[in-house]
Each structure stands twice: as structure tokens, then as C-alpha cells.
Amino acid sequence: MNGQTPMGLAAAAAAAVRPCRRRLLSSASTAASKSGAGAATPLFPRLPHPHHPPYGRRLPFLVSAASQTGPDAPPIHTTGPVPSDPRAAVSGNLPFFDRVLFPDSFPIETPPAKEDEDAAASAPAQADEAVAPALPVREETETEREAWRLLRRAVVNYCGEPVGTVAAEDPECTETLNYDQVFIRDFVPSALAFLMRGETEIVRNFLLHTLQLQSWEKTVDCYSPGQGLMPASFKIRTVPLDENNEGFEEVLDPDFGEAAIGRVAPVDSGLWWIILLRAYCKITGDYDLLERVDVQTGIQLILSLCLSDGFDMFPTLLVTDGSCMIDRRMGIHGHPLEIQALFYSALRCSREMLVVNDGSKTLIRAVNNRLSALSFHIREYYWVDMKKINEIYRYKTEEYSHEATNKFNIYPEQIPSWLVDWIPEKGGYLIGNLQPAHMDFRFFSLGNLWAIASSLTTPRQAEGILSLIEEKWDDLVANMPLKICYPAMEDDEWRIITGSDPKNTPWSYHNGGSWPTLLWQFTLACIKMGRPELARRAVALAEERLSDDKWPEYYDTQSGRFIGKQSRSYQTWTIAGFLTSKMLLENPELASILTCDEDLELLEGCACCLSKKRARCSRRAAKSHAG
């Protein structure tokens, strides 16, 4: 980036935005309208972008209004002006998309005149085939209409512009706690719902304002974490301009974990931000945003923080308890699957979005190396099925050699009794955690579903996970999708691992509770694997109850029959997750804004090939699973 380091760029960005907290970062047009003068100078200059083909797929209707192919076609990675009307990015290439998302503005078709009929009769047959008949617009159900009303009610404005949605908008609850804040992970399903409806402004504002917060000072007990850390949430506060309280201004008040329960930094926030940035750019074609210096710097800072050297011998991220959606003590410290799946997805997204220049080549090389090592590690060591568990059951321990089978010194006695009868003959899943002499055999839904979406698993493993969910439907879905983890910890295990947490009692909250917001990620995984009928079954189940139950945050009991004992009503990501699931099922091609295809090139980049001492490597086994 013009020879500057990410740290230097971050300092420059912070200096540019802090003196004017109220100014929106997308201020070029706003500043021009206020001043009445000509074009305003952008706050951050746009980077020159070499037209390199992205690694992932682009939706055909996201490039421009006219679909062009061949040698004279414009490059996919466009750098021209972005249409102010989001319809311009999708119209003309996918007629039903316009009709579904913008039915009020779609022209009403009139019967052709008699001469037109005669002309049409003499046209070639291929011309008739080129014009697809209009698909009927499905009328929204009353539950969907209510969900949209509630989602819009949760929108937060900053200086007159929408910037996110609060975690919950419960008019009957007087104790807000932190549910009146905008959480990065919570906003993702809301953002997707707005994007798929063509309302992109709120997502753009959210991305830029949270990026601005990345450079703010964050300190807990005189210690500051890495500069690339994204906040867990932020709140809009109104503060006086002077001591006389004659004027007020709105400011963003972020929380980087210093006010959270347990004071844990949100590791997943930056990963979700990168994933959402890619989805926004793919569905809008707004690559001018992506090429901005501050956005490129933000991506680099997040990656630099995640890829920093440490003492760990594994390619997985080492984190503490409570650093992701499970934000309380639940025994997931170490290398939890949820973080690894999001980490892998963020790396894949970043590889598509990073501008290639002298300043980023080293980082891109590090991203490719980590992707290769991480995919192998998860596929090889986290995967369990009937065959693998039987292999673990017969493990020899205390092996000391490069050819050891039991590389993590797992004791067979760790296999829990519930798993012996629970694992089906067909199918399998990725375990929740792996450390020396420790395997967490619990099934964690988010990590497994996102591993499917990002192609962290092999296609065969992805099919096995969905087969297991279908086989164990009564355990993982039952009356309300979807168990956050299975099974729950009980008795002494609950007391020791959670510290007798009264909120995470057995089959409640994070300890085996059912979370409707996981529905959209389940839908995404099902669409990617060609199993939409499973998602429709789960969506129909949720639709029967969510509205009557006032859209709760989570459900309790082993079968998910009771509303959670401390569950908030009108939880925004419950509402948005339902809407996103419905829209994905109606327009399954939109799933590609979030998913990644299998990349066999990653399996060629084994670091062991560089060392003559490590002649034997099991990467070939991982490649064989990709089929």
C-alpha cells in the first residue's frame, strides 16, 4: 500500500476520522450537497486495483446490468461508479430477482397488439426461448410481514443514517443491559436480509463505521490488545458539546470486551466483518468501497492480528473461553471449531478482496499457507465418524516419533459413553475442540454448518454432517431449530466446567439450548449441498412458533419446547435469521455471496514439501477425501 505498513496506515486513518466523529465515511456526496460546491475530496483515496480474477465465484447478475461474455467483455472486478439505485446492479440479468425484491417498481405487462402477435409468430424459435416467462411473485405471509416490521423497528440511526440493528427491541422489558447495542455478529443476518431485499445503505454504513472504531484506543487494566481488534458492539450516545448543555452531538461508544462478562475480547467480530464485506461487495458490485485505503488497511490489520506468530504448533487459532457466540464459560477454550471455521472463511474471503501490490504480497502468501495448513488440520484431526471413533478406541498412547498414529496422545477412555450409541453408521461431524490429550466430542452446530459453507470440510464430510443432522433430527432440531451444542453438560461436569453458571444450566442457553438464529446458517449449508428440503422442514417448524412466542432469543429443554427462562423477546437475530432463511430458499443462487467452493490448489501447498526431514505427510489422505 504505497510502501506503508498497516500500522502506519491505521494511524493515519485514525487521525483523519477522530476529529470529526459525526462525519460519515461515505461523505463524498454528502459533503458536496452540504457545501453546494463541486465534487468533494474523498476522506480516503481509492487504491489503484489490478484487474486480477477473484478466486471465488461472482453471481452473473451482480456484474452490471448487461450480461457480457467473450474477450471484449469488461473485467469482473469493476472499478467504475456504483449505481445509486441498487436495482441497477441486478436488473436485466435475472428477471425474477427484480420481480421478487422490487415488485412495486416492476412494469406491468400489457397484452401485445395484433401486429405484434404476427411479428412474434414469424420470429425464430430461438428468440422465443431467449425470453423467459415472468415468474409469479409469492405473497409474503403474515409472519414474514411482522418480521419485517420488527426488523425495521430495531434499526439504529447515527447522524440521521442507519448503521445497524439493536440486539433486541423488547418494549415489555425495562432492564436493557447490553441488548440496546449493535453487535457485529448479531447484525450479520440483519445485513443479509437487507442486502437481499436491495436495501444496501445500512450495510455500507455499518461496515464503514465499525471499521472506524477498529482504530480507537482499547485498554483493560492498562493493557491494550492488538490494533486489528474489532469491537464486539457499539452504542449511539448523545453527549453535550459544552458544559452549558446548549448543544449535543452523537458519538459511537464501542465495547471491545472491556465491559463484557469476563472481559473477553471478541475474536469472531473481525472475522464476521470480513465475511459480511465480501457478501456486500458481491451483491452490490460496490468495489470502489473495497478498494479504499481504509478498508484494505482494516482487512490487513485483522489478518495480521490473526496470523501473528506465537508459541502454538497448530494452524488453528488459540482463544480463551467466551470469545465467540458462546460468550460465557463453556469449556471451549483452546481451538474451538466455531472460531476455526469462521477464521478459514475470513481467510478465503480476504484472498479474494486483498489488493495485490508490494505491500500485500507477503500477507497474501501467509494467507495461502495458513489456508492450506488449516484445511488439512481440520479435515484430518477434527473429523469423527463410526470408523474414526473405533480407531480412537484402539489408540496406543505415549507414542514418540514422527510416524505416530495418535499424534495428540488421546486416551481412548475420553470417548464419552453417550457417543458410543449416538454416532450413526453413516455420517459424521467435526468435533468441538482439539488439544494435546483432549478431544471435545460435543457437536457444535455453528462450527459444523460454517465449515460446510466455507468448504473447510471435504464434500464427503459435508454430506456426512447433513446426514447426521437428518438422522439425529429429534436431538438436534426437535421442536425448534437448532441446538447450539449437543449434548448438554450436567451434574459435576456442569459445576466444574461452567463454574455452576445459573444461566447455562443443562439444556438452557449455551448449554444445549435451541437457537432459532442458527436457522439461516443451516439453510445456507443445505442449499450449498443440494439439500434444501431439510432447510424447508426446519423453517416450517420455526414459523409455526416464533411469532406466537414473540421471537425469543433461545429455547430451553432437551427438545426445545420451552421458551428460554432468561430469553429476551423480539430478539433481532432471531427475526433476521428467519427472514434470511426464507429469502435464501426462495432465491438459492444468492447463497454464493457467502459460500466458498472447494479449492484443490490449497491441498498442494503443504509446508512439509519444503523439508527433506519430513518426507512422510498425510496430506495425500486429505486430498483423497475431497472426492
From TrEMBL:
Superkingdom of origin:
Eukaryota
User: What keywords are assigned to this protein?
Assistant: Carbohydrate metabolism, Glycosidase, Hydrolase
Described by its record, this protein's role is as follows: Invertase that cleaves sucrose into glucose and fructose.
Recorded protein name is: Alkaline/neutral invertase
- Signal peptide region: none
An example Gene Ontology molecular-function term = endo-alpha-N-acetylgalactosaminidase activity
Per the record, the GO terms for biological process are:
sucrose catabolic process
One Pfam match, by short name? Glyco_hydro_100
Give me the reactions it catalyses: Hydrolysis of terminal non-reducing beta-D-fructofuranoside residues in beta-D-fructofuranosides
Q: Which family does it belong to?
A: Belongs to the glycosyl hydrolase 100 family.
Organism equals Panicum virgatum (Blackwell switchgrass)
Keyword Transport: yes or no?
no
Q: Does the keyword Transcription apply?
A: no
Region described as Disordered: spans on this chain: 24-89, 107-132
Question: Which major enzyme category is it?
Answer: hydrolase
Sorted alphabetically, which SUPFAM superfamilies does this protein's record hold? Six-hairpin glycosidases
Instruction: Spell out the Gene3D superfamilies in the cross-references.
Output: 1.50.10.10
What are the EC numbers? Answer: 3.2.1.26
Q: Name one GO cellular component term.
A: mitochondrion
